[in-house]
Write a structure and sequence with these properties.
It contains 15 helices and eight strands. By secondary structure, it is α/β, with parallel strands linked by helices.
């Protein structure tokens, strides 16, 4: 490792040049995606007001049928049972990258202390990533109380964001599995015992826990997020059941250590390390399981402005991975079922919102009615069905909001924000150079439900 001011400067200049080159490549690809999707949204207007509806109707039927069948497959979420035999359990290292987390870090450490797991098979590793609040002092006090807690610290400008902080911990880990948590996470004390079948199975390279929102009934915004997270887990379980892919969601992800190392660790050149790693696991032939119960609990975002910043980061990271890995995604490294699954959800999540903007622009320019509305309506109908289905599942942890017509209407309307975020983020990626920074969600220290 290079040391000293001169070496650090040389390393940072080289990394900056490499990031700029990579950023320019992504910008060109993002511009191509933007123009293609805008053009696809505007093109049907050349067919006239009636025939121009045909592409949207056909797409709605095909994409809608696939998505509904995915929801149907998700009707029986993966569940777990507590392991009863005396076989040695795998060692687990819990990883947390913490920056300015004085409101929640004590709660997290106590949650790990409550886990029902052999003491010699469980360790907690916290990377204090240059905190400027009381996080270092709190961690120092807690490390004197809990021998399983290992605290490391690096400078605030060390680089790589959360991925860099987690990568700095990897050389010290010896466990079979790594459980990556956000600082606001809370867990069922029996969680690690109950998911033993997944941890002992060679079928899974990673396991993602369903994300359950604390105090989900506090407001319309938190209710919508709680149902959205449940819908996401329900859809993922259905995708896996149909031979599609499962994806990591950052908080509550368990990674087989040897698999992560084989994939090269956490990518420091992305704004969403979990989404990027999902694709690298997929291309490496390592399946991701999604578990409904027990979930990982986390705080909701309580302000609309903060939520939009979070969703812009998620949208950027989600598109970034398609731009980075698309040649491999089209290769024979994936099955046709996996490629179909990726295509359908790329079209619904990314192409449709951008194409809708192209449709509206053409409508205004030609004084015609929009033509993509059948596809948009079918997508919103699907999300309403999915929200209702997920909200009725038997769930542990914080209770899900009641599936009332009003809650479903509000939550489904709330999901329309993706139709604004995706085009905006894609345009920004295409037109503006990207500087990678740590963009964390502020945690308030909400009371954990019993």
């Amino acid at each position: 490792m290079l040391t000293g001011d001169s070496a650090d400067h040389e390393s940072s200049v080289s990394a900056a040049a490499e990031d700029l080159t990579h950023s320019d490549g992504r910008r060109r690809k993002a511009l191509l995606v933007l123009m293609a999707c805008l053009g696809a949204g505007a093109a049907p207007h050349c067919l006239g007001p009636l025939r121009g509806l045909i592409p949207a109707v056909v797409a709605a039927l095909l994409l809608g049928a696939y998505s509904i069948s995915t929801l149907r497959s998700g009707g029986t979420p993966l569940r777990t049972e507590q392991e009863k035999d005396s076989e040695s359990v795998p060692a687990v290292d819990v990883l947390v990258a913490a920056r300015d987390e004085e409101a929640v870090i004590s709660r997290l450490v106590e949650a790990i202390a409550r886990l029902d797991y052999p003491a010699d098979r469980l360790s907690l590793w916290v990377m204090d990533d240059g905190s400027e609040d009381r996080t270092p002092q709190i961690l120092e006090e807690l490390s004197r109380q809990h021998h399983f807690l290992n605290v490391r610290r690096r400078q605030r400008n060390a680089g790589g964001g959360k991925s860099g902080a987690l990568n700095a911990l990897l050389p010290q880990l010896k466990g079979d599995w790594m459980l990556v948590l956000d600082a606001d996470a809370d867990l069922n004390p029996q969680l690690l015992q109950r998911i033993q079948p997944h941890l002992r199975s060679s079928a899974w390279g990673a396991v993602q826990l369903r994300k359950a929102v604390l105090q989900g009934d506090a407001s319309w915004l938190t209710r919508s997020q709680a149902l959205e997270m449940a819908f996401d887990a329900e859809m993922q379980i259905g995708r896996i059941a149909k031979g599609g892919i499962g994806e990591l969601r950052g908080n509550g992800q368990l990674l087989r250590r040897e698999v992560l190392l084989a994939c090269g660790g956490f990518n420091e050149d992305t704004v969403t390390d979990d989404l990027d790693l999902s694709f690298r696991l997929l291309l490496g032939g390592h399946a991701v399981a999604v578990i409904w119960n027990p979930p990982v609990q986390e705080e909701p975002v309580t302000r609309w402005s903060a939520l939009l910043r979070q969703r812009q980061r998620w949208a950027e990271g989600g598109l970034q991975r398609f731009l980075d890995y698309w040649p491999s995604l089209l290769s024979n490294r994936l099955s046709l079922r996996q490629q179909l699954d990726l295509l359908v959800f790329f079209l619904l999540q990314y192409a449709l919102p951008i194409a809708t903007v192209g449709d509206l622009m053409a409508s205004l320019g030609l004084w015609q009615l929009p033509l993509l509305w059948p596809l948009s309506v079918s997508t919103l109908t699907l999300s309403a069905v999915g929200l209702g289905r997920a909200g009725r599942q038997s769930s542990e942890g914080p209770p899900l909001p009641a599936v009332t017509p009003l809650n479903l209407l509000v939550a489904n309307t709330y999901l329309i924000h993706w139709f604004l975020v995706i085009p905006w983020v894609t345009a920004r990626m295409a037109l503006r150079p990207k500087r990678l920074v740590w963009a964390k969600t502020v945690h308030a220290g909400l009371t954990v439900s019993s």
